[in-house]
Design a protein that fits this description.
266 residues; alpha/beta; 2 domains; two-stranded antiparallel ribbon; 9 helices
Length: 266
């Protein structure tokens, strides 16, 4: 068991009460656990909860304290304070049975040459050049910031891959925080919750529409609008809308396909 596993396990069980849906702890408790376990103090204590929020599975002993069909997540409760909460589900992936909507690829050739991969940066770049957020949302959207790292009250430090602002035909304003994932990764409830809290804090008058982006292949992109609802102290990660797009050359879209789409929209 790693140092992080030993520390997080000790903190959890020192605060856990049978049947609880919430388990609170602080950064100071992480430090005390290091001392009690004889582990040299970890320099960046905040990296312990961060690791289990976004990178690593919790120890099995903690997982076993979940009710069926749920899992523990860790959320920020302000600077230096955290909380284990139950989520059902805690993570989600794109579905496998969606139609691929063909979109003429507007990515500049020089960008394709030097950014050909399927990592998160390549994904955000292709989504931006092809205005996929506009197509998906039906809004006129503008990218205003990417790779944001900031701190917000009652949550702590957060990261957002890209933020768009949008407007509809009636002039209503929207804020669209985006989380990008490489193929095979999952979208977590913690990320969507922190995006929603950031939008409430920074853009209180705009409607928040959190979306998740993922390459399905080099030229196939899944976009999901997600939300989080809470009932009986359990968070639920829900899909509001999902569409898959395929970036193609102009010759890969036939006249028959164009006619068919026109008929469906008529």
């Amino acid at each position: 068991m790693s140092k992080y596993d030993r520390v997080i396990e000790k903190v959890f069980f020192e605060n856990y009460v049978a049947g609880a849906a919430k388990v609170c702890f602080s950064r100071e408790e992480l430090a005390q656990s290091c001392h009690d376990l004889g582990i040299s103090r970890i320099k960046n204590l905040g990296d312990i909860p961060y690791t289990y929020r976004f990178r690593k599975e919790l120890p099995q002993s903690i997982k076993e304290k979940c009710p069926s069909h749920s899992e523990w997540i860790i959320i920020g409760k302000g600077i230096g304070f955290y909380e284990f909460r139950l989520a059902s589900p805690g993570k989600i992936q794109p579905s496998t049975n969606r139609q691929r909507i063909k979109v003429p690829d507007a990515t500049p050739e020089i960008v394709k040459r030097y950014a050909p991969g399927t990592d998160e940066q390549a994904l955000l770049t292709k989504v931006r050049y092809n205005r996929l957020v506009d197509l998906f949302s039906g809004l006129t959207c503008y990218s205003v910031q990417n790779h944001l790292r900031t701190t917000i009250p009652n949550v702590g430090q957060i990261e957002i891959d890209e933020i768009y602002l949008g407007m509809n035909t009636r002039g209503t304003h929207f804020v669209i925080p985006c989380q990008a994932k490489s193929p095979g990764d999952q979208f977590g409830v913690v990320q969507i919750m922190q995006d929603m809290e950031f939008c409430k804090f920074k853009y209180p008058n705009a409607i928040c529409k959190p979306i998740a982006l993922q390459f399905l292949s080099k030229n196939d992109v899944a976009i999901l609008e997600l939300t989080v609802e809470e009932s009986n102290d359990i968070f639920h990660l829900l899909v509001v809308d999902e569409r898959h797009y395929r970036l193609v050359t102009k010759d890969e879209i036939t006249d028959d396909e164009i006619k068919l789409m026109s008929q469906l929209d008529a």
